[in-house]
Amino acid sequence: MRIVRVRTTAGIRHARLDGERLQPIEDPYTAFAAGRVPRDAGEAITGAVLAPCDPRVLIGIAQNGPGHDSPVQAWLKSPRTVVADGAPVRLRRDAGTTVAEGEIAVVIGRDTDGLTAGTAHDYVLGVTAVNDLSSPERGEWDPRNFESKSGAGYTPLGPWIDTEAGIDDVPLELSVDGAEPIATGSRDLPVPIRECLAYVTRWSPLGPGDVVMTGAPYEQAPVRPGARMTVRVAGMVLSTPTR
Asked: Do residues 10 and 75 share a domain?
């Protein structure tokens, strides 16, 4: 199932994509916790498609790429930086070069009490695409990633949650302005996604709608104002213009 969030005149609704049709569904997290597929809930709707979830907690995984001898570590990014597919992002002019980092984002489906590496898939609603925009030069002053990751709109997310992609073999691509894409995937992560989730939840609980960005293996590219960044994850395309 491909799950989206839609802003309608009656408020924000969850829906599944049925071709071009937006079919409203019940709360997908309630259904997930009950062990079933979300039921349809009314007639087709129209409205603006938002980021596919609204996380209370947004976590990044550092050092999960080639050339890192250190173990992975988690860090927090403000959920207020999340924007939808297609939303233009104004790059910061006061933080040096901006870098696009295409990543696989895991959307948690239920409270993670009891999650282990072996059972991690049982706690995941699905995956989506994320562009973890960064200003790496700020890392020289701020090793905790606050300044380098804190631009407004610096977390484009979406366009949907794929509930059938799994977490073990997910393809990933990044390209800027139509250049040859950098192709990789979850199998190129030194630490598998399920082990990252077990590590994170050993220290901090997660809940429905929270997001873990799982790391950027190879796919990083500098961007300038006026560029368009494209992240592809499991067949979905997240496209973000800059200004």
From this structure: no
